[in-house]
Design brief:
This is DUF721 domain-containing protein. It comes from Microbacterium azadirachtae. InterPro entries: DciA-like. 42% of the residues lie in helices and 11% in strands. Strand 1 and strand 2 form a beta hairpin. The model has no long low-confidence stretch (mean pLDDT 80). With 163 residues, the protein is of the alpha+beta class. 7% of the residues are buried. It contains eight helices and three strands. It has a domain of 49 residues. The termini are far apart. Strands 1-2-3 form a three-stranded mixed β-sheet.
């Protein structure tokens, strides 16, 4: 309790000052009234924390990573997109200029997947619209190259060697 008209000092402040060996001053220890900014006040509507997914989606959108991440998802989830049997015999190898190139184990698999091209493109467009896939090219296994080394003589390749 304050004596002789002095303002009352909060107990916590008085205890602190006593422990420090200081005398409480005659300052006005009344708490200052805070100016409440309604926009940033806690527990107001709209101040609830967002989900981590929403924060990451905003970050990828603001940084311009949507297309790159969508292309990565397409490659990583090829088995789910094309089916497990098809994925055993094919894999996406490049995506340039809207053309997705898929390498197959055999020319037979490449030909069969060409028949399914419209279905696969539709599914890619539905699942990964930001990837920018406009067309698909299915290729078979590579043929052996007869050109080795830094210098290559022009010619017909193995026909010159074998006759």
């Amino acid at each position: 309790m304050a004596e002789h008209g002095e303002p009352e000092i909060p107990e916590t402040v008085a205890t602190y000052l006593r422990l420090r060996g200081l005398k409480p001053s005659s300052k006005n220890w009344k708490r200052k009234k805070r100016i409440v900014d309604d926009e940033n006040a806690p527990f107001t509507p709209g101040r609830d924390p967002g989900s981590l997914g929403d924060v990451l989606a905003k970050l990828t959108r603001d940084a311009g990573w949507e297309a790159a991440l969508s292309r990565e998802d397409l490659v990583l989830q090829w088995a789910e997109l094309a089916g497990p049997d098809t994925a055993k015999h094919s894999e996406p190898v490049s995506l340039e200029g809207g053309m997705l190139t898929v390498k197959c184990d055999s020319t037979a698999w490449a030909k069969n997947l060409q028949y399914m091209r419209a279905v696969i493109i539709t599914e890619i467009g539905r699942r990964y619209p930001e990837a920018g896939v406009e067309n698909i090219r299915f290729v078979g296994p590579d043929v052996p190259s007869w050109k080795w080394g830094p210098r290559v003589a022009p010619g017909r390749g193995p026909r010159d060697t074998y006759g």
